[in-house]
Every structure is written in C-alpha cells, then in structure tokens.
Design goal:
By secondary structure, this protein is an alpha/beta fold. It is built from 12 helices and 20 strands. Strand 7, helix 8 and strand 8 form a beta-alpha-beta unit. Bound molecules: pyridoxal-5'-phosphate. Pyridoxal-5'-phosphate (PLP) binds next to helix 9 and strand 9. The site of pyridoxal-5'-phosphate (PLP) has 13 residues, from helix 9 and strand 9.
C-alpha cells in the first residue's frame, strides 16, 4: 500500500509510519533467540524510541514481552494512563522525592543508594497491599547510575528484609556490548557474577538477574539471566554496524513526505539560507516539507539524501526549520504531490536506512530514532491497515480519527 495515496483528512504529508507488525515480529524473534525461560523486557523509554510508547508497549506485550523498561516517572504515568497493567521497570535514576509518585503508579523503582532506598521504603510503608517491587543496579564499569559492587550486599539485604519491599531484580548495564572487539563486556559480566555471589552469600535468596541490552542479546551475552532488556533491536534497528540483526528483523519506522514544489534552477542560482549551494548548470530541485523542527537535523545540510522514484536525491544547501530542497535526479519527471522517502522502509525506495542516516547525522542509530519531533504525525499500521494516527495539534486529523485511541501525553 502506498500511504501517500491515501486521504489523511488534513494530516500533513510528512509523517512517520509505524509498522506494529514489525515490532511484534521482532519481539517474537528476540524470544526465539533467548533461552525459553528467559523473560524479555521491552524497553520503551523516550516514547518507545520515538515510535509511541503506548503502541509499542501494547504490541510487545501481546507478542510475549514480560515487562516494560522506562527512564522517567512520567513515561510510566503515560503507560499506566494508556491502560498498561504489566510490570513497568523504571531503569533510570530518580530523586528521592519522586519515589512516592512512582510507587503510586506501581512502577518498579531502581535503587542504587541509601537515600533513594529510604524514600522508597517510606513510600512503600504508605502504600497498602502488595509489596513494592524494587531493582538494585550495580555499577560494573559504566560509572553512571548504580551502586559500587562492595556496597551491593548491604543494600540487597536491606531490600530483601523489608516486608513492604520485594527484590524484583539485580542488574547491571553494559558499556560497550555494541563493540564486539572490546573485552570490557566480559569483565563487566564477571564482576556482576561475583557481586551476585556476594549478595547471595550475605543471606539474600537468589534474585532475578538482568544485564543484556540488545547488543548483548544479539551476541548471546547475558541471555541466560532471568531477564534481558531489549530496546533498539525491538524496533528492528541494529545497535551498531558491528552488531547486525538477524535477516528476519526489520525496522518498524519509516518517514515519508511529498513534493510541494518543483523548482527550476538556472546556472548561478542558489537555494536555501546563506546560499551555500549554487547550481553550476541547469537542474531541478524539489521542495520537501520537512525541516529541523521535525527532527530532520541541520547537520544534514548538503549531506543528507532522500529517495525519489527509487533514486537518491541529495539535499541542496541548508536544511531550514520547515523544509528542504533536494536535487531531482536527471530523467525523473517529478510533479507536486509525488512521494518522498525520507528514512527507512523499502530499500527500493532509495531512502537511507537508519544506520545510513546516523552516519549522515554523525550520530548513532538511537539518536536518529528519537530525533523526529511530535510535529511529525505517527501513523500506525497493523496487518497493513491504518489502526491509529497520533498527530500533535492537528485537530482535523484527531477528529477524523476520533475512534482511534488517543495517545497524546
Ligand atoms: C536503554 C536501556 C536498555 C536498552 O538498550 P538497547 O541498546 O536499546 O537494547 C537496556 N537497559 C538499560 C538500563 C537502558 O537504559
């Protein structure tokens, strides 16, 4: 189906198409890649890596995910408000004063020091009913959030002996799993194992463990712990060029737009701010309504390309806030309204893959996924059919799709 042919009742032509079937299939592949008893946590922080956390969460859970991973309390609130009842693990560091709100929404908090643990203990005392689930994070070398290994047994003992708390996990995070040549990953995993042994030796019954991110899962490292945490691979994107995905996985996001003006350029003409591009010969430009306010970063000025009729069309000059001009390859008879493939999707469309755009933007594929702003409406497909649209302040679109569940925060 060519989405640009459909009538979107007032939606702008620039949109992200999210293939929920890809997310479900990727989830099932991740389950098949890990031992049968290993649970997969779907990491849906940063609005599901830009895909829309409630939709990704629902799809991943239906396909077999056991829990969800997030970074901030408000991300958990959005998921709870969207009706998610599955376990949600707050992987990021929070302040003690956020503990009560987190517990109120039954988010599983990660602790790594006494002050946060005390705040969680206070919040858990107030919360009646089931004990509050807590994860303990060990710093095995990333030197970000986590307790130093020698403090871990005391913290674990305090959690395990508090009747209002449940030690739902002990975990660590790998610094360089996406670099297969770096032996540091093995040092981290060995230190993690030693720390877990010390926790158990201190009298704590063996807790659920987790360490692997997508790169770990793809390399088979840390997959025999209780849980693995799958982020970028769930979205069908490799963590780095050195850790490829199995062929069966595919990206869930593509971005498309349409030509809004065909621009004849005479020799000597420039296009865009500051006139950084000048035509040496007669050529044709195409105006595309996407700019850095949409997340099409200014870094892509004179560097990026889009797909036009299956060919690469390079960005001419500066990326503006709301638009770009690309070079129409010779021999293409382009007209207003023709589809433009900005990112991902079918290779035959000529658009860059997410890894290629990461290179153009001088960043990693993670930042590419999260950089597209809320101004770009998300269109959700299931079995090739549009099941929902999430548009920023596009009231016409929201009214037209009123029967679709609203997922605006
Ligand atoms: C983001 C995150 C993940 C997911 O990482 P991917 O490389 O996207 O799979 C896993 N664990 C923690 C603690 C994270 O913050």
């Amino acid at each position: 189906m060519i989405l640009s042919d459909l009538d979107y009742k007032g939606l702008r032509p620039t949109r992200a198409v999210i293939d929920l079937d890809a997310i479900a299939d990727n989830m099932r592949t991740l389950l098949a890649m890990t031992p049968a008893r290993t649970q997969v946590m779907a990491v849906v922080k940063a609005d599901g890596y830009g895909h829309g956390a409630p939709w990704v969460a629902r799809t991943a859970l239906e396909a077999g995910a056991s829990s969800l991973g997030i970074a901030t309390v408000s991300e958990g609130q959005i998921l709870r408000r969207s009706g998610v009842t599955a376990p949600i693990v707050l992987l990021g560091s929070i302040l003690p004063e956020e503990a009560e709100t987190a517990c109120h929404d039954t988010l599983q908090v990660t602790v790594a020091d006494e002050s946060l643990l005390e705040a969680v203990q206070r919040a858990a005392r107030k919360a009646t009913g089931t004990p509050v689930s807590v994860h303990l994070k060990i710093d095995t070398g990333l030197r970000r959030f986590g307790t130093m290994p020698d403090c871990a047994p005391a913290l674990a003992t305090r959690i395990a002996s508090d009747p209002n708390l449940r030690l739902a996990g002990v975990f660590t995070h790998l610094a360089s799993a996406d670099e297969p040549d770096d032996p540091f990953t093995f040092e981290q995993l060995a230190l993690f194992d030693r720390t877990v042994k010390a926790i158990v030796a201190a009298g704590v019954s063996p807790p659920p463990l987790h360490a692997a991110n997508s790169a770990g899962i793809l390399r088979g490292l840390g997959t025999s712990y209780t849980i693995v945490r799958a982020g970028i691979a769930l979205y069908g994107v490799p963590p780095s060029a050195d850790v490829p995905l199995p062929q069966t996985m595919r990206p869930a996001m593509r971005i498309e737009s349409r030509v809004t003006r065909v621009i004849p350029l005479a020799p000597g003409d420039s296009t865009g701010y500051n006139r950084t591009f000048r035509a040496h010969e007669a050529m044709v430009g195409a105006l595309v309504p996407i700019g850095y306010a949409d997340g099409y970063r200014r870094e892509l000025s004179s560097r990026g390309w889009v797909g036009l009729s299956g060919q690469r069309a390079h960005v001419l000059g500066r990326v503006s806030m709301d638009q770009i001009v690309v070079e129409v390859p010779r021999g293409i008879g382009l007209k207003v309204g023709d589809p433009v493939h900005i990112l991902g999707g079918n290779i035959a469309d000529g658009a860059p893959s997410i890894l290629e755009m990461a290179e153009q933007m001088r960043t990693n594929p993670y930042e590419v996924l999260v950089c597209f702003s809320r101004r770009v409406p998300r269109i959700y497909l299931r079995n090739g059919e549009v099941v929902a649209v999430s548009a920023q302040a596009d009231s016409a679109a929201m009214n037209a799709w009123a029967e679709a569940p609203e997922i605006q925060p």
